[in-house]
């Protein structure tokens, strides 16, 4: 570890020094007339830094990356024309280190700074520091950032601008007792929110007084850790809410326009994971009303640049102001997809003083439908906790209707220090069904190995009938996947037809394996294989397809085969482009991408339509003999409380000899600035406590044992 850190520091120093000579020459050189800025420093990391730099490069503007010691080899640091190290790995010492970033601005001669999203993008002090350094902040003015970034102040501005607002307390909630008093006045359920919050941190729903007191305490702690501001507000929780937002764009000459809405209702832990544009709920009349209120709010606060006004809507199409994000949103690509506009380019032109280059009428004549899936390195089976590690194999999907914004590549490290987003996967179609079909294909062919991730869950969501019909709310994931176990890849559902496809493809792989062992070439006769899936044995017979069926199959590199299952026969064929991790095939005329997660002499672990399954494959005689094998033993972990991920043990609620019941709090682990309460699964007595408060824990490290 020490050696790796020293290498990172040296790399930082080398990269920083390499920028000095070029910067000295550029600092006094004005930007060419046809260039908006001389040089843009992107004060961010990962995919958003790369995305901003792509537009800058297209416009001929040189770019500067900032990076931490942990990110010395990161994609964004190498993608920029110059790169400067701004500090150690923790974000507070690097990407939130305003003095270090200002020094990077001066050192490189950057005359504009784009903040991306997150980190300092909504920090008024950073806006002022950038401007004091003589650079242009590519974003809204300080006043707007200050007022809209504070949820209490923004609600007051919204009400004054006659924007629909959610009932709640108009000021800061003093303490837990005050929170209970407010909740009793407006009625449960309520939402506790950090005034300076964002990204789902410092936010919880409470359905009764007990939950409210606990939520207030946890949210206060999370907000203080994440934002340095523990102020809380409380508002009425809208039941069956849909999260719908309006993208706005204003110039420095007083013009403001709104874009078609985005729906962001599919969320986990109040963090968006699937977004689409336009919303299945919104009518043209509702779109106009929301857009006009968003524009009114922007004009009231003197807004310019890109921003987003977020609303909650109920099934009756009533909508209420939620908050305003004074930055580029994570999900901005879907707006770009249906309007053909480059929002980063608009931000740069506005920052340079140019008037809006798009009209309201143009924006309301959008085309098609777009959807974004946020792919995170996280473990749904462990409550969506981040998964740390290296991307051992990484292949992004591609195609004419696919866009993948990422800041990683094969070999990249997913660090415990930063947000675990891998990429934003976007598809577009002429309508919602075609967009869904494109997203299914893209997720099926997205190869990610080395860390746990949420792509299987995202893929499974797309097949839920309610989602296909657009009947969604912010509670969708919680309702359809109520427990961590239900969202685990090996528990995700497959329809009967999808399971038949899986079995047929497994049989095809078995036949190909057997043919290689016997010298290669096409299969000439029949071959039987017993497939064991979830304890059930199925006999499959694989044979060459008849000439008539083979002629009807899609062209491909593989032999057309018939796979006979007990209840049906399927026609399968490898269509080419397959690899050790991915099989492209056609089954009964439907093109599929099957992921091979692991394989052994008798075992395959496959992923189909998001669901992961382990299949045992045997010749009929071998399958018969397995009946006489002893059942494998399993260990009971229900009486062991483990840390679900690397983190800090901030609270220990039990001691040796103490009795606990199912659901009792045992410990609190903080990771990624989120506090995770660990509870007992079964009743028992504490037999051992194997960690102390303040300890830094590893994933799966035992904290408490029960007996």
Automatic annotation (TrEMBL):
A GO molecular-function descriptor: biotin carboxylase activity
Source organism superkingdom: Eukaryota
Database matches in Pfam families: Biotin_carb_C, Biotin_carb_N, Biotin_lipoyl, CPSase_L_D2, PCC_BT
Known cofactor(s): biotin
ATP-grasp domain mapped to chain residues: 155-352
InterPro entries tied to this protein: ATP-grasp, BC-like_N, Biotin_BS, Biotin_carboxylase_complex, Biotin_carboxylation_dom, Biotin_COase_C, Biotin_lipoyl, CPAse_ATP-bd
Keywords: ATP-binding, Biotin, Ligase, Lipid degradation, Lipid metabolism, Magnesium, Manganese, Metal-binding, Nucleotide-binding
GO CC list: mitochondrion
Catalytic activity line of the entry: N(6)-biotinyl-L-lysyl-[protein] + hydrogencarbonate + ATP = N(6)-carboxybiotinyl-L-lysyl-[protein] + ADP + phosphate + H(+); propanoyl-CoA + hydrogencarbonate + ATP = (S)-methylmalonyl-CoA + ADP + phosphate + H(+)
CDD domains for this protein: biotinyl_domain (cd06850)
Residue span(s) of domain Biotin carboxylation: 36-482
One GO BP annotation of this record: lipid catabolic process
Lipoyl-binding domain boundaries: 632-707
Function: This protein is a component of the acetyl coenzyme A carboxylase complex; first, biotin carboxylase catalyzes the carboxylation of the carrier protein and then the transcarboxylase transfers the carboxyl group to form malonyl-CoA.
Known partners and oligomeric status: Acetyl-CoA carboxylase is a heterohexamer composed of biotin carboxyl carrier protein, biotin carboxylase and two subunits each of ACCase subunit alpha and ACCase plastid-coded subunit beta (accD).
NCBIfam families assigned: PRK08591.1
Protein's name in the database: Propionyl-carboxylase alpha mitochondrial
Lineage: Eukaryota, Viridiplantae, Chlorophyta, core chlorophytes, Trebouxiophyceae
